[in-house]
Automatic annotation (TrEMBL):
PROSITE patterns, per database record: NODB (PS51677)
GO biological process assignments: carbohydrate metabolic process
Record-annotated NodB homology domain positions: 38-276
CDD domains according to UniProt: CE4_HpPgdA_like
Protein name as catalogued: Polysaccharide deacetylase
Position of the signal peptide: none
Length: 276
């Protein structure tokens, strides 16, 4: 477990404002019959056509670099979008290949998903991604061990702490950068009648309350010197109204003193955790 005194540049707290660029692959991976549902797929396409530009512009306005977790098929199908992200010098990491939940796959299939995604991102960027975030859904007990076998240096898939921690196996170890659902925009704003997502058809959350949740959670992380890891999804946060949530969160965070903000890879490198 990482102590606050080890944060880069002696910071009191660190913030990772990560992005999941799932596009239409979110729906295709979780609901394969979405291939015949143009309305459903169009929600993911919106993230590429409109949401991504707003997200990139907002991060640029606040001079923030972050990590984009991208399914391999999204990199293959939308290379121009990936090139935009690269032009802003953000980190690229893997979010599965087809965005199929890992617990539905055999060990060989999981490894194939990781290897294909890694190669797809390397092909367009020229850089081998070192980070892995499992697609939404459950993992198996083997998933992160397989990620290590595939050459990833860190994962951001579990919920076991408020600071990076190391997971050990017989074949080595991996750093985990943990998450929490309340700092993920997609559950607040995802809505689709068919297939029903979320189950039960919850209503779209209040923009004001979601903004306050991100800010209130940050206050706690800052007070205790922890690692604040947020997730944003262009198909939800990138609408003309919801982008102000991201703007307000970034404005709030960047007012704080002694706060380090950056990519997952830069955080671990600054802590000396990528040297072993």
């Amino acid at each position: 477990m990482v102590e606050a005194k080890h944060w880069p540049q002696g910071a009191r707290c660190v913030a990772l404002l990560t992005v999941n660029l799932d596009a239409d692959q979110f729906w295709l991976g979780m609901f394969p019959d979405s291939i015949n549902r143009p309305k459903t797929l169009s929600m993911g396409e919106y993230g590429i056509k409109r949401g991504l530009d707003r997200v990139l512009r907002t991060f640029d306005e606040y001079n923030i670099k972050t990590t984009f977790f991208i399914p391999g098929k999204v990199a293959e199908n939308y290379p121009a979008a990936i090139e935009k992200i690269i032009s802003y010098q953000h980190e690229l990491a893997v979010h599965g290949h087809s965005h199929t939940s890992m617990h539905l796959l055999t060990a060989d299939q999981q490894l194939e998903e990781m290897e294909k995604a890694k190669e797809a991102i390397k092909k367009i960027s020229g850089v081998v991604p070192i980070g892995f975030r499992a697609p939404e859904g459950e993992l198996t007990l083997e998933t992160l061990r397989l990620a290590k076998q595939c050459g990833f240096r860190y994962s951001s898939s579990l919920y076991g702490d408020d600071r990076p921690y190391r997971i050990f196996w017989d074949n080595g170890s991996m750093i985990e950068i943990p998450l929490h659902w309340e700092l993920h925009d997609f559950p607040y704003f995802a809505f689709n009648y068919g297939p029903a997502f979320p189950i039960g058809q919850g209503r779209v959350a209040s923009y004001y309350q979601v903004t306050k949740t991100y800010q209130r959670e940050f206050d706690g992380y800052y007070q205790y010197g922890l690692a604040y890891v947020a997730q944003f999804t262009p198909q939800t946060i990138g609408s003309p109204g919801k982008i102000k949530i991201l703007e307000d969160v970034l404005e709030y965070l960047t007012r704080q003193e002694n706060l380090w903000i950056g990519t997952c890879g830069d955080l671990l490198d600054g802590m000396g955790l990528l040297q072993d």
